[in-house]
């Protein structure tokens, strides 16, 4: 274009020259224009094509629903909140406590919101001071051996790496743990300590809840001192409002397409009919039960071995991992609740969150029926917590029953003692409470709002994927006991699993399940010796370990000493996997099989007694052989007694004092040479 305009800019060019130049110019211009147009067209064509191949990439990324929501700070500003309660929860209790604290806030003229740290960017904590009278509370459960819960893993990683300035942040922490575990409340303690290190201001002391004692009482005691501290800090007062506040509203669906109604799915509607990997807590796999056999030959208990078929699921597992199963409540309990409350359990309804800004739209998948909710989504067998009793009290027509419920929900010493004896120790579930309080007849929708979610149950996998790539094995004992009120209580999951027996005609019952990875792993080198200690159903992961060591031996690998310490009550009654263990020993894979029969003689003999008996050999394997030690089973007594036995052995043969021996064992744990898979 510049070349075309240039001749007109020089007035000294003659008319003839101008004409000749113009003829020449137009021919050049034609060529240039054609070239330019061709070039532009080519460029446009390829550019356009490129854009078509990747249409609106940024939009696609947005539509793909990122894990993180918008900033929790922006959300708090938008909704007028000043208190955020984050929860690290594996079984739902920490989430429940967080919800209770966020609801409490209104009594002090504040507004709270419970938040899942997995859904937000926690680096925004440094901005919380932008909100007046702001406070972050953390209800943090500890999982396994001092680990964060799944939903708090990212937050934990961020805390470890962060160098953020949190000097404007005010915080408080309540930890949920269990004193029978080695790393009691490790996560709560770490969050409390680390936030202070980053400059945050603690406005109330760390609370340490103990599930081995009375977690509910620990929480109430902490909470009743926490709120006065908040009031003092911010200069606010309680409004005195103790009224019940509904979080959800009931919508009954009279004309609904049943294809849009949840029937027990954990996440996606119809996910049980149309299964798609990957499978996890929100998308469990429906595994067929191909075997369910009784393991014990006698006694009152029922110990069982189940095999779940995971063919075509793409599920992978390692020896030592856990399998989670979603159980269903006993239909007779569900029916009795429906009868007592005079409800048509097949009514299809939704409970919709009154807070439209909340990420949690429903307390469980909706729309669904009351029957489905009480069967698959709600915990109806555990004793209800005090907040449930408090909310239900308003529905007791009898003044005495109402007062009793309110008293048990109070923080008074008398009320706590009554709750402990009448609810916790008597193991009264919601059905028992309704039966024993004839005037208490709450609306079923409010009851469904208040009851906690039914949680998945975890079992140590009793197989090796090297030997059984398409099958996961479970070893479990049914839980059944009589309460102080004379009722027979049954464990939800084990009673349900017991009923999952394959039919003679070949049809197999289904179990919703997924795999949770564990740190409980065999040594990297097969030649490393292993000492496995697992009485009762604690033998489960070791069946997988021994299977794997046998497989490695068959592959021509050098396999180190494989030593098992197992215990049961009676040799002739509950010696689990007896034939399998004898075969492994005969094949030379299981180099030592030490079995303690606790009740076959006058004096009880446990696994720790056998460890003491073989103490020289144990020390040699640990000290010279660099053996890895594994303990699986009861945390309250067995794991502690076994650990104390190791302290004694180390002290005696390592010529160490008691504190040195304790330090030696702790270092084994740090190095991954002393691993625990225990429960209480």
From TrEMBL:
Enzyme kind, highest EC tier: oxidoreductase
Q: Which Gene3D superfamilies match?
A: 3.40.50.360, NADPH-cytochrome p450 Reductase, Chain A, domain 3, Nucleotide-binding domain of ferredoxin-NADP reductase (FNR) module, Translation factors
- Give me the segments passing through the membrane: 25-46
The UniProt record lists the Flavodoxin-like domain at: 83-227
Q: What is its EC number?
A: 1.6.2.4
A Pfam cross-reference name: NAD_binding_1
Biological process terms in GO annotation: response to hormone
What residues does the FAD-binding FR-type domain cover?
282-523
Gene Ontology annotations for the cellular component aspect, listed alphabetically? cytosol
Which of UniProt's keywords are assigned here? Endoplasmic reticulum, FAD, Flavoprotein, FMN, Membrane, NADP, Oxidoreductase, Transmembrane, Transmembrane helix
Q: Which CDD domains match?
A: CYPOR
The Swiss-Prot or TrEMBL record lists the needed cofactor(s) as:
FMN; FAD
Name the domain of life this protein comes from: Eukaryota
Q: Which InterPro entries match?
A: CysJ-like_FAD-binding, FAD-bd_FR_type, Flavdoxin-like, Flavodoxin/NO_synth, Flavoprot_Pyr_Nucl_cyt_Rdtase, Flavoprotein-like_sf, FNR_nucleotide-bd, NADPH_Cyt_P450_Rdtase_alpha
**A Gene Ontology MF term for this entry?**
NADPH-hemoprotein reductase activity
PROSITE patterns referenced in this protein's UniProt entry, alphabetically? FAD_FR (PS51384), FLAVODOXIN_LIKE (PS50902)
Protein name from the UniProt record: NADPH--hemoprotein reductase
- Source organism: Copsychus sechellarum
Gene that this polypeptide is encoded by: Por
């Amino acid at each position: 274009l510049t070349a075309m305009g240039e001749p007109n800019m020089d007035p000294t060019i003659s008319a003839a020259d101008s004409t000749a130049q113009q003829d020449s110019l137009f021919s050049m211009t034609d060529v240039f224009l054609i070239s330019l147009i061709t070039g532009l067209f080519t460029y446009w064509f390829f550019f356009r094509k490129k854009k078509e191949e990747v249409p609106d990439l940024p939009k696609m990324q947005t539509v793909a629903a990122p894990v993180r929501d918008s900033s929790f700070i922006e959300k708090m500003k938008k909704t007028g909140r000043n208190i955020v309660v984050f929860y690290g929860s594996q079984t739902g209790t920490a989430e429940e406590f967080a919800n209770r604290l966020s609801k409490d806030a209104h009594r002090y003229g504040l507004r709270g919101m419970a938040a899942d740290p997995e859904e937000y960017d926690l680096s925004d904590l440094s901005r919380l001071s932008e909100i007046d009278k702001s406070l972050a509370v953390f209800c943090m459960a500890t999982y396994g051996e001092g680990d964060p819960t799944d939903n708090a893993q990212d937050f934990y990683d961020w805390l470890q790496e962060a160098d953020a300035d949190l000097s404007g942040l005010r915080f408080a922490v309540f930890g949920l743990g269990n004193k029978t575990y080695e790393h009691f409340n490790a996560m709560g303690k770490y969050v409390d300590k680390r936030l202070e290190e980053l400059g945050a201001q603690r406005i109330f002391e760390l609370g340490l809840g103990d599930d081995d004692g009375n977690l509910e009482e620990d929480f109430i005691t902490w909470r009743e001192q926490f709120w006065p501290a908040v009031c003092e800090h911010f200069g606010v007062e309680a409004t005195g409002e103790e009224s019940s506040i509904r979080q959800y509203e009931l919508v009954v669906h009279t004309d609904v397409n049943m294809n849009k109604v949840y029937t027990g799915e954990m996440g996606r509607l119809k996910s049980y009919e149309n299964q798609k990997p990957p499978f996890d807590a929100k998308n469990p796999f429906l595994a067929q039960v191909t075997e369910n056999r009784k393991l014990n030959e006698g006694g009152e208990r029922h110990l069982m071995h189940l095999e779940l078929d995971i063919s075509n699921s793409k599920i992978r597992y390692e020896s030592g991992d856990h399998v989670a199963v979603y159980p269903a409540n006993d239909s007779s309990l569900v029916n009795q609740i429906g009868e007592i409350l005079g409800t048509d359990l097949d009514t299809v309804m939704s409970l919709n969150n009154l807070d439209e800004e909340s990420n949690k739209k429903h307390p469980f998948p909706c729309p669904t029926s009351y029957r489905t909710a009480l069967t698959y989504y709600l915990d109806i067998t555990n004793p209800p917590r005090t907040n449930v009793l408090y909310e239900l009290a308003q529905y007791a027509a009898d003044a005495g029953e109402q007062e009793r419920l309110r008293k048990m929900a109070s923080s008074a010493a008398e009320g706590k003692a009554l709750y402990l004896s009448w609810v916790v120790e008597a193991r009264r579930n919601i059905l028992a409470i309704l039966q024993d309080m004839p005037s208490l007849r709450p609306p079923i929708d409010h009851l469904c709002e208040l009851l906690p979610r039914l949680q998945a149950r975890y079992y140590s996998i009793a197989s090796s994927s090297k030997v059984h790539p398409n099958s996961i094995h479970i070893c479990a004992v049914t839980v059944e006991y009589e309460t102080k009120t004379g009722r027979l209580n049954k464990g939800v999951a084990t009673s349900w699993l017991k009923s999952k027996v394959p039919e003679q005609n070949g049809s197999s019952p289904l179990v919703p399940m997924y795999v949770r990875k564990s740190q409980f792993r065999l040594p990297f080198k097969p030649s490393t010796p292993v000492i496995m200690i697992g009485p009762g159903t604690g033998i489960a992961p070791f069946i997988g370990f021994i299977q794997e060591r046998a497989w490695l031996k068959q592959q021509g690998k050098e396999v180190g000493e494989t030593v098992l310490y197992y215990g049961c009550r009676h040799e002739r009654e509950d010696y689990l996997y007896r034939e399998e263990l004898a075969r492994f020993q005969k094949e030379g894979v299981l180099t030592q099989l030490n079995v303690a029969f606790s009740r076959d003689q006058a004096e009880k003999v446990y696994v720790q007694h056998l460890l003491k008996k073989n103490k020289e050999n144990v020390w040699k394997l640990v000290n010279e052989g660099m053996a890895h030690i594994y303990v699986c089973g009861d945390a309250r007594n067995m794991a502690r007694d076994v650990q104390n036995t190791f302290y004694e052995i180390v002290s005696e043969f390592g010529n160490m004092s008691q504190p040195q021996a304790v330090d030696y064992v702790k270092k084994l744990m740090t190095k991954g040479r002393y691993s625990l898979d225990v429960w209480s």
